[in-house]
Design brief:
This is HTH-type transcriptional regulator / antitoxin HigA. With about 130 residues, this protein is mostly helical. It has seven helices and no strands.
Length: about 130
């Protein structure tokens, strides 16, 4: 059977069934190669038709703070002085790459979420 693009929901369901039948295939086999290609096609289809709604940077930081019981003071070593932390949390200052890297390394916040920054509120500070 030839591999073809996934264009419809029917194609999607059929490809998922085929992937399921190939799950035990050895990686270094023809079936394993087919599984890799089909999985790539499924991922591409899902990215377009079922996009993940990741939180934005501030939502991700606030979720981390809530889950771990962190305070603004805990964020200061990564973001900067207290007023800067509040500016970020109030969406008045964007995260810098240094802040994103620090939040990801220190608190394990997914970089994908930290890179998603919503428009700033009026009263924006220069970065």
């Amino acid at each position: 059977m030839n591999i073809k693009p996934i264009k419809t929901r029917k194609d999607y369901r059929e490809t998922l069934k085929e992937i399921e039948s190939l799950m035990t295939a050895r990686a270094d086999s023809e079936e394993g190669d087919r599984l890799d290609v089909l999985t790539t096609l499924i991922e591409a289809y899902e990215r377009v038709h079922f996009p993940m709604d990741l939180p934005d940077a501030v939502d991700a930081i606030q979720f981390c703070m809530e889950q771990r019981g962190l305070s603004v003071q805990d964020l200061e070593p990564v973001i900067g002085r207290r007023n800067r932390v509040y500016e970020v949390l109030n969406r008045r200052r964007p995260l810098t790459l240094r802040m994103i890297e620090g939040l990801h390394k220190t608190f394990g916040i997914p970089a994908e979420s930290l890179l998603r920054q919503n428009p700033l509120k009026p009263g924006r500070k220069a970065a």
